[in-house]
Design a protein that fits this description.
alpha/beta, 2,3-Dihydroxybiphenyl 1,2-Dioxygenase, domain 1, 4-stranded mixed β-sheet, globular, VOC family protein, VOC_core, Glyas_Bleomycin-R_OHBP_Dase, Glyas_Fos-R_dOase_dom
């Protein structure tokens, strides 16, 4: 449905360090780089991160979060570890989420700007 999403951050260098580390285990890399914007994806940019004057205020009750597809469980685990090591906050350790489905393996992070992120792997039959 979506071609890409864009988020605004106050400190692009901090975001660059965080997203470079957190997205690498999922197979996503920085494909675009400028003084005010960076872009990530596997082959084309799907996530744009821009330095802006007034980023959206983080609100844990808003329901907003972004979910990234992972190639396997180990990638979900590595995403979680790398995100925490790079300034993210744990919002749900890696594991099966039976409320979402018996094969739904995910981890949840809050990035340094307050965006809620998820890495997900479907580990079984549909």
């Amino acid at each position: 449905m979506f071609d890409h999403i864009s988020i605004g951050v106050k400190d692009l260098e901090r975001a660059r360090r965080f997203y470079d580390a957190a997205l690498a285990p999922l197979g996503y890399e920085r494909l675009s780089n400028s003084d005010t914007t960076i872009g990530y994806g596997p082959e084309t940019v799907g996530l744009w991160v821009m330095q802006v004057e007034q980023p959206v205020v983080a609100d844990m009750r808003s329901g907003l979060h972004f979910c990234f597809v992972a190639p396997n469980e180990a990638a979900v685990d590595a995403f979680h570890a790398a995100a925490i090591a790079s300034g993210g906050t744990d919002n749900g350790e890696p594991g099966v989420r039976p409320d979402y489905g018996r094969f739904y393996y995910a981890a949840f992070i809050i990035d340094p700007d307050g965006y809620r992120l998820e890495a997900y792997f479907h580990k079984g039959e549909l």
